[in-house]
Amino acid sequence: MIKKSKIIVTGGLGFIGSHTVAELHAQGFEVIIVDDLSNSSINVLNGLEKITKTKLIFEKMDLKNKSLVKKLFIKYHDISGVIHFAASKAVGESVIDPLKYYENNLITLINLLKEINSLKTKISFIFSSSCTVYGQAKKLPIKEDEKIKQAESPYGNTKQICEEIIQDTCKTSKNLKAISLRYFNPIGAHPSNEIGELPIGKPQNLVPFITQTAIGKHKELTVFGNDYPTIDGTCVRDYIHVVDLAKAHIQSIKRLIENKTVSNYDFFNVGTGKGSSVLEVITSFEKVSNIKLNYKIGPRRNGDVNEAYADTQKANNVLDWKSELSLDQAILSAWNWERKIQNI
Ligand code: UD1
C-alpha cells in the first residue's frame, strides 16, 4: 500500500527537499514537487530526473496564494502526505526583513493546513524545523525536551511558531497527523553528484564557504571566533549528511502512513549525535581534498551559540533511524559537488 503513496513535497527543488525527493522515489513513493523557484533552480529538476530516470511531476507555484493551494489539493486529492520544506531560511536576512519571513513561512503553512483540514482522507505531514529552536541549550547533547527559549531571530521564531501551529491543528483536526524534524547542520551532496547545495549569492554556512574558498571563489575563510569554551575554542555543531537527513523524512512519513504513532503530533532531533568544531571541519576538508585551505581567525559572529549537537536517541528508537555517513564522507561529497558546479 505504501508503495503507491503519493506525497507532495513543497520546496522540492531546494537543498534538503531535492535529496528527499530522490529518496522518496527510491523507496517507491510517487512525488509531486512544488516549488516557486524563488531560491532554487529548475536545473535541480533535471538532476533529479537523471537520478530517478523518471519524468517527475513539477508544479511551479507560490504557496502564499490561497486559491492556487486549493487547486493543488483538488488536482492531487488522492495524496497520502505532504512534506513541507518551502520556506525562507537565511537568518541574517530575517533580522533585516522580518515580515518577509513571517509572511513566507507562516502563510504558506496555514494555507496548506487549511486545505488539508478540508479533505476527507487522512494526511501525514512532515515539517522542516531546526535545532535553532533550542538556542544555546543548557544541556548537551540536546534532547527534545530541552526548554524552548525565545528565538534569536525572526527565522528561528517562524520555526517555533510553525511547530506550535501544527501541534494546535493536530489537536482538533480529524485527518491530520504530523511530525516536526529539527535538523542540525545539513551538509554534503547526493552520491550521484547530480544534486547538491546551490547557495544563491555569498554563502553564510560553513561548508559551502569552505568549498567555494578552495575552488577560488573567495580569497579566504574567516573562522568566526576561537575563544569559545569548546575543545579548540571554535564553535561546535552537529554536521549531518543531507542523504541521511533525507532518509529521516522517509522513516517519519512511513511511520505516520502506517499508523504507528501514539499521538497525532511528535517532533524529533535529526543529527549525528556528534559535535565537530569549525577547525575539525577544516581539517576534515583538507584531508579529503588534499588541499590546504586558506583561512584566518576572525571575531565572533553575532548570534552564534557555542555548542549544539543532538541527542538522537528518540529518532533512533522511535523512527528506527540513525545517521550512517561520516563527516569525511559528507565533506568529500560537498567537495565533489563544488568541483562539478564551479562553472555554473
Ligand atoms: C545556521 C543558522 C541556523 C540554521 C543552520 C542550518 C545562523 C546564526 N544560524 O546555523 O539557524 O538552522 O545554519 O542551515 O546563521 N562559520 C565560520 N565561518 C564562516 C561560516 C561559518 O567560522 O564563514 C562557523 C560559524 O560561526 C558556526 C559554524 O561555522 O560556528 C557553522 O556555521 P553555519 O554553517 O552558518 O551554521 P549555524 O550557525 O550552526
Summarize the structure.
The protein is α/β, with parallel strands linked by helices.
Key phrases:
binds uridine-diphosphate-N-acetylglucosamine, alpha/beta, seven-stranded parallel sheet, single chain, 40% helix, 344 residues, two-stranded parallel ribbon
Provide an overview of this structure.
The protein has 344 residues and is of the alpha/beta class. The chain is 40% helix and 17% strand. The protein has a seven-stranded parallel β-sheet with strand order 3-2-1-4-5-6-11, sandwiched between helices. A two-stranded parallel ribbon has the order 7-10. α1 (15-26) runs parallel beside α2, α7 (206-215) packs parallel to α9 (278-289) and α9 crosses α11 (327-341). The longest helix is centred in the N-terminal third of the chain and has 20 residues, at 98-117. The protein is globular and about 55 Å long. Residues 91, 130, 132, 156, 185, 204-206, 209, 221-224, 235, 237, 278, 301, 303-304 line the site of uridine-diphosphate-N-acetylglucosamine.
Strand arrangement in the largest pleated sheet = 3-2-1-4-5-6-11
Order of helices and strands: EHEHEHEHHEHEEHEEEHEEHEHH
The secondary structure category is alpha/beta
Tell me the span between the first and last alpha carbons: 41 Å
Q: Please state roughly what percent of the residues sit in beta strands, choosing from under 5%, 5-15%, 15-25%, 25-35%, 35-45% or over 45%.
A: 15-25%
Tell me which ligands are bound: uridine-diphosphate-N-acetylglucosamine
Please give the share of residues in helix: 25-40%
Shape: globular
CA radius of gyration: 19 Å
Topology, number of strands: 13
Mean pLDDT: 96
Which sheet architecture does the biggest sheet show? 7 strands, parallel
The number of helical segments is: 11
Low-confidence stretches: none
